[in-house]
Amino acid sequence: MSEWPSDPKFLGKDTRRLEGPAKVTGAAKYSSDMQPEGWLYGMIFRSKWPAALIKSINLEKARAVPGIKGAVTVRDGERPVYFYGEELAAVAGTSKQACLDALRLIEVEATPQPFVVDPVEAMKPGAPSVFTDSPNLSEAKIKEEGKVDEAFAQCAVVVDGEFSTQVQLHHSLETHGNTIHVRAEDCTAWASTQGIFSVRDGLADQLKLPQSKVRAITEYMGGGFGSKFGPGVEGSLAARLSRETGLPVKIMLTRFDESLAVGNRPSSYQKIRLGSDKEGNLLAFDLDGFGSAGFSSGGRTAGGGGGAGFPAPYIYKVPNVRTKQAGVATNAGSSRAFRAPGHPQGSFGMESIMDELAVRLGMDPVDLRIKNDPFEIRRKEYAIGREKFGWAQKYKKPGSTPGPIKTGVGVAGATWGGGGKGTKAQVTINPDGAVEVRCGTQDLGTGIRTVIAVVAAEIFGLTPDKILVRIGDTDFPPSGGSGGSTTTPSVSPAIFDACTKGLQQLQTVSGVADARGVNFLPACRKLGVEPIVMQGEWREGLSSSGAGGVQFAEVAVDTETGFVKVTKILVVQDCGLVVNKLTAESQVNGGVIIGLGYALYEQRVMDPQTGVVLNPNFETYKLPGISDIPDIEVILLDMPERGVIGIGEPVVIPTASAVANAVANAIGVRIHSLPITPDKILEALDRVPKGATAGNEELDPAFARVERADGVAGDFVDFLPA
Amino acid sequence: MKAFEYVNAQTPESAAGLIGTEGRYLAGGIDLLGEMKEYIATPARLVNVKNLPTTREISKTPEGGFRLGANVTIAELAAQADLPAGLIEAAAEVGSPQIRAVATVGGNLAQHSRCWYYRQRDLTCLKRGGSTCYARDGENKYNAIFTGNPCISPVVSNLAVALTVLSAQAVVWRKSKEVRLTMAELYADAWNNPLAQNSLQPGDLILAVEIPAPVAGVRSSYLQVSEKSDFDWALVSCAAAGSVNEGKFRGVKIALGAVAPVPFQMEEANALLEGKPCNEASANAAASLILATATPFSHNGYKVPIARALIRRTLLNLAK
Ligand SMILES: Cc1cc2nc3c(=O)[nH]c(=O)nc-3n(C[C@H](O)[C@H](O)[C@H](O)COP(=O)(O)OP(=O)(O)OC[C@H]3O[C@@H](n4cnc5c(N)ncnc54)[C@H](O)[C@@H]3O)c2cc1C
Ligand code: SF4
């Protein structure tokens, strides 16, 4: 990909975030900071029932609260409710307290219905049905390649295990929401979104306004992780309230709301069998899996994973593969894309069973992976990583550290596409030398503004701070939503294209043969009064896809208290051409921290008796804090010849698997479910008095096909000191 | 939250007079405002007690002990190097720096249940006046393994556990008089009564906590295990105080937190340790005695091994 400069000044180097000072001083205005003249607070009224038939919703008393200017129902007439926290109505008023008071006066006539929130329960015959017209369990999708049963019969070693993963919430620090002003002819929405154009189009559709009359603006935003595309129910309610009141309405969700209805990573349950020959060549794989994506899962979906599917046998090449996946509907908020959808689940099951196999074979887990990984870059990364990490010195027989605090190491790999797609951009070169780049992308916190400046600076031979970058506005040339690790590979080529053309034009008009660097300003001065305005767009050749990465983890486990401390994560990751090293590494850090939360802390807890979410706050929904975060070392393979590839998703994926493998290596027993909390560790170590269980129960009753086979955990127990 | 009146009390007498039947004392507000925002508490009046004279001071008693004013913040406690080590450690583990800077000693001791059913805005469990304890058959991972009543919400005040083994007393303004309650007395009602958070009666105002003068050679220690490294509630906490003379335990007291509606102690275990060698075997024997009557629920049996480890570790810390 020789089009990218071969001897860059800024590409692949460290450029600080352009908006850093604005963010730390509070000058940066987020959607929640917008206060257009006359704006009203809006708040959402939610179902207190996990399942119900709503007959009527009466807003009269709410409207009568002093300060309340408008109230709307989500839907008029009778309607079902599928989960606790489902949106039913909204109010807008001059103060937050007025809204809170009004919400308490909304009267609902409803008939509660039976409900089920636990996917394993939801699959049982006789379980309450989430939908009256379709079963909770979707029709399983079965895929078979090769001859699985025959292959297993030939395997020298077969391991099996049951794994499960929890529901993880996105919990962006900036909650979901918008400030929206609908006028007679047009609409402006300040949205906390990762897709300004999808917000614009969604609102235009709903308000029956031309797309050209709706403007969505996102100058700064505090995270989305896949959960913030489109206006959402909260956006559409704000728009309706604005239309009703004629005033701008701001609905920013509360932290409580964030736990209920704006997405999550679906759960997964996996029963896996894996077989190899004596040398560790994988021969056969069998998966029976299901998961729940909340109410939008199961029998109403197209079948298969039902929104909760995951890749298997993940990154490995196995000649004989059978997978069966289903989705289960439960009375819970629906899943949404969550940084690397499906992959962390698939990775946890597969990478766990890989380590079981390695132990059984007496083989180094890194060797086993290299042997069975078809992706050359990742094989190289394992080699680099094991050196850097000191794997050979650190990897030892599971559970063999003397004393109660046991250390262990683990490894896992990941894959992601992360390619680019259509984006347009515009560069303006002014006669005074001022450069402005406009692109209708949005920065969900990942640093695209800085990336744009780096690319433009590189081409013009200027420094990044000399480039005025304007993004986050649908009045700018269009770009796609920031999801799937596509932003940098979509946007960078468009900037490259626009700026390259702009530079050529500048050179033509000014007659300066090379208008870069010190020649830039003199060339601009020759433009007279007419600036150069040039469009560019994404095109093939400047980006590609297919990122690979591996992570190594080291942990210390207190076997008397079950406390796990992660002491080191090493990341070796490919993302093609590194545009800005600093923000790329920052993406890695963020991804690893999400992975750590998934590994050890985070879990949405729902109460089976009442159907409510029990931990709708940061006190009991446990996010990793600063002291939980280990030394994270990042090695980026800078490969300019591959063009730009996204890095957001792949770095989230292997962390939990590597940590889980490190824990198993430390204590000699495997924890089969995430998050790995002290209760599970102590139970796995057989330290919990009998009769008490800690949620690491066998999943077996849920699996129809095979009779229960003990996990390989038993094989490890021998290594435990008495 | 529900609209309320706000008044500033200048003396204990006026505070107690202003509280009425629907008022609540306000100190740092960390706990109370949380309850009010969720409409778990809907007081008609808040009586700010932070301006009561001398309640923000740490001072020496005539007998050489410490008097901790009720409005001393937890951050101030944690920074007071001459206080017993166990108390400083317990204070330092409370919440986050922001919480410690605002939360007070009195409020910490008088804080209400953190059971997540109790704190769920749309549920009304037994402790909130409903008919059911949801935790018993539900998600009881963080609940108690000892209780004397149908509610299994544990005491979660770090300070209460540390103060218990230091034989501290709460100085309480009750019906126009100062009364003194041991930590056991301060929580006794919560053991028996599902509706009680502690033994404070309506209008009771904590003025201070007094810790007897330190005896030469007596040490104290506090340890807790949480799911996270920092800013997380204890799954189990444990405090011990006493001395180790010529390798033998003397006058040792031990208490557990987050396992019972009261700071959980057992006189028999303290007695058992008397004169025993300071070693793992003695500590384990005490742990076995204390934990023998534990009745874990479906998801909290893991608290037993954690408690065992913490009892051993805090006891052995006394020799360090
Ligand atoms: C996220 C989070 C984490 C936390 N983690 C911990 C932890 O790890 N360990 C721990 O111990 N605590 C923890 N806490 C609890 C916190 O320490 C207490 O809420 C705080 O100490 C209460 O003190 P306050 O001054 O804010 O009390 P307030 O909220 O003002 O009052 C609390 C209660 O005590 C009453 N009260 C206040 N002062 C008096 C008085 N003088 N006499 C009688 N009654 C009085 C009030 O009426 C109210 O009922 C945590 C809290 C939060 C929100
Ligand atoms: S343990 Fe107590 S506070 Fe918790 S649900 Fe039961 S009664 Fe309520």
Overview of this protein structure:
Chain A is built from 19 helices and 23 strands. By secondary structure, chain A is of the alpha+beta class. Chain A has three domains: 20-29 and 420-537, Aldehyde oxidase/xanthine dehydrogenase, molybdopterin binding domain (Aldehyde Oxidoreductase, domain 4), CATH 3.30.365.10; 34-113 and 172-258, Aldehyde Oxidoreductase, domain 4 (2-Layer Sandwich); 268-417 and 545-715, Aldehyde Oxidoreductase, domain 4 (2-Layer Sandwich). In chain A, the strands form five sheets. In chain A, strands 3-5-1-12-9-10-11 form a seven-stranded mixed β-sheet, with helices on both faces. A five-stranded mixed β-sheet of chain A has the order 7-15-14-13-8, with helices on both faces. Chain A has a four-stranded mixed β-sheet with strand order 16-21-22-23, with helices on both faces. In chain A, helix 13 (448-460) links the parallel strand 18 and strand 19. In chain A, helix 9 packs parallel to helix 17 and helix 13 runs parallel beside helix 14. Chain A is globular and about 80 Å long. Chain B has two domains: 1-48, Uridine Diphospho-n-acetylenolpyruvylglucosamine Reductase, domain 2, CATH 3.30.43.10; 55-320, CO dehydrogenase flavoprotein, C-terminal domain (Enolase-like, domain 1, 2-Layer Sandwich). Chain B has a five-stranded antiparallel β-sheet with strand order 4-5-8-6-7. A three-stranded parallel β-sheet of chain B has the order 1-3-2, with helices on one face. Chain B has helices at 12-19, 30-37, 74-78, 85-92, 97-102, 105-110, 158-165, 183-192, 267-273, 280-291, 303-317; strands spanning 5-8, 23-26, 45-48, 58-60, 66-69, 169-174, 177-182, 205-211, 219-225, 236-245, 248-257. Chain B has 320 residues and is of the alpha+beta class. Chain B contains eleven helices and eleven strands. In chain B, 29% of the residues lie in helices and 20% in strands. Classes of the chains: A alpha+beta (722), B alpha+beta (320). Chain A binds chain B through residues 48, 84, 97, 100, 104, 256, 404, 558, 560-563, 565, 600-601, 605, 607-610, 612, 614-615, 619-620, 622, 624-628, 677-679, 682-683, 687-689, 691-695, and chain B through 1, 39, 116-117, 120-123, 134, 137-139, 141, 225, 227-233, 235, 294, 296-302, 304-306, 308-310. Iron/sulfur cluster is lined by residues 113, 115, 117-118, 125-127, 133-135, 143, 151-153, 194 of chain B. Iron/sulfur cluster binds at residues 113, 115, 117-118, 125-127, 133-135, 143, 151-153, 194 of chain B.
